[in-house]
Structures are given as C-alpha cells and as structure tokens.
Design a protein that fits this description.
Blueprint lengths: L1 H25 L9 H6 L7 H23 L8 H14 L1
Length: 94
C-alpha cells in the first residue's frame, strides 16, 4: 500500500513541476517600482487657479471639521464627505 501511495505522489510531482516551472518563466517581466528619485526628478505640474482655490477651501473646511469634531459640535451621523459638501458650497458662495 505504501508503495502505491509513493508511486502516485512521484507521478503527480513529475506532472506538476514542469507545468509550474513553465508558468514562472512565461510570466511577463514586472516593471520595477518607481523610486523616490524617479518621482523627485519629474517636474511638478502647476495647479490651475480652480484647483488651487479648491485646495484652499478643502484646507479651510478641514480645519473647521477638526475644530467642530474636537468641540463635540458635529451632528450625529455627520461624516466628512457630507460636511465637506456643505462647507464647500458655503465657501464657494461667499
């Protein structure tokens, strides 16, 4: 009985190993991950005036959110996306 099991395992290994070896060699070469030097070498793209204004509003709303949350003045169920939407509309209108 032991000989039968050993023969079955050996036969399975002989079938699986060549298939696994070809799958590893046939895989496309992975691109190396971008390093910090690569990212630093690229010049940063200038923000448009609209993007700069949006970032300023987001920073102001973020500061308001943190202050309100620390003071416990945030309504129950209020989340950052809902707060941001209302704050952004308010600041755009001002």
């Amino acid at each position: 009985m032991l000989k039968v099991i050993a023969a079955a395992l050996t036969g399975a290994a002989l079938v699986v190993l060549p298939v696994a070896a070809t799958a590893q060699t046939a895989a496309p070469a992975a691109k190396p991950a971008a390093t910090k030097q690569d990212k630093a070498a690229k010049p940063k793209k200038e923000l448009s005036p609209g993007q700069a204004a949006m970032r300023e509003r987001q920073k102001k709303c973020g500061a308001e959110w943190r202050d309100a949350k620390a003071a416990g003045k945030v309504e129950k169920g209020q989340t950052w996306p809902k707060f941001w939407s209302a704050c952004n509309k308010r600041l755009k209108g001002a």
